[in-house]
Specification:
The chain is α+β, with helices and mostly antiparallel strands. It has 6 helices and 7 strands, in the order αββααβββββααα. The radius of gyration is 49 Å and the shape is elongated. The chain starts with 22 loop residues before the first helix and ends in an 11-residue tail after the last helix.
Length: 226
């Protein structure tokens, strides 16, 4: 037997090259091992990457125009069914059949006592239509005692609004001293006695509806010239 020893082969020494520094990696390592205080950390912007696209938080949008208080106030106004029926019958009034009929009358007035008397409705007038939902009604009454009552009613079809009532009384021979003095001053200024027609014109005026009311009394309200 040979006493040969296995040949030993020594591996060549491995040369180690000096480690090169990576500035980006060093910066990352320094950041990871740096102070962990929350005060040194800056919040990152809220962004999300979706398929290569950057999505940021949406900007707050202004409320739509129809949510403003002004638009909420434009809701339809409630109307009175009874007033709608009255409007559709214009210029006919509910008490037109009572013209010339002597009966117990009640004339409503706002902020004053209502007028109750026995007398006759001489004439009434109303417009042919009320496109805006409002109209006026004029009436002239004569009491059994020789007085005249003038009534003006302003109607509205809207449920939240109230009708308005005005009325005056003309007394051809007033019993109170203040009324007599006032009547005398007016008569002196006009150079003739004050009549119920003068009082009617002072109350109703000469608008188209008033003229329609006067025409129903004939030619008494016309100014005759020669």
């Amino acid at each position: 037997m040979s006493s040969e020893r296995p040949e030993e082969i020594s591996a060549p020494p491995v040369s180690r090259s000096p480690q090169t520094s990576d500035p980006a990696r060093d910066s990352e390592i320094a950041r990871d091992h740096g102070p962990s205080s929350e005060a040194t950390r800056q919040p990152a912007p809220a962004t999300v990457l979706v398929r290569g696209e950057t999505i940021r938080d949406p900007e707050p949008k202004s409320p739509p125009a129809d949510s403003s208080p002004k638009d909420k106030d434009k809701s339809p106004r409630r109307v009175s069914e009874a007033k709608i029926k009255m409007q559709t019958r214009l210029p006919v009034l509910d008490d037109d059949p009572d013209v010339g009929v002597e009966k117990e009358q009640v004339v409503i007035r706002d902020r004053k006592a209502d007028l109750a008397f026995t007398g006759t409705l001489l004439a009434s007038a109303a417009p042919a239509s009320a496109p805006k939902g409002q109209w006026r009604e004029y009436r002239i009454y004569e009491t059994n005692g020789g007085k005249h009552v003038f009534s003006k009613v302003t109607r509205t079809i809207f449920a939240e609004e109230q009708d308005a009532y005005e009325a005056e009384v003309f007394d051809p021979s007033p019993s109170t001293v203040p009324s007599q003095l006032l009547r005398s001053a007016r008569e002196l200024a006009r150079s003739r006695p004050l009549t119920w027609m003068d009082a009617a014109v002072a109350f109703f005026g000469y608008d188209p509806l008033a003229k329609a009311l006067y025409r129903k009394r004939g030619s008494q309200f016309e100014e005759h010239i020669s």
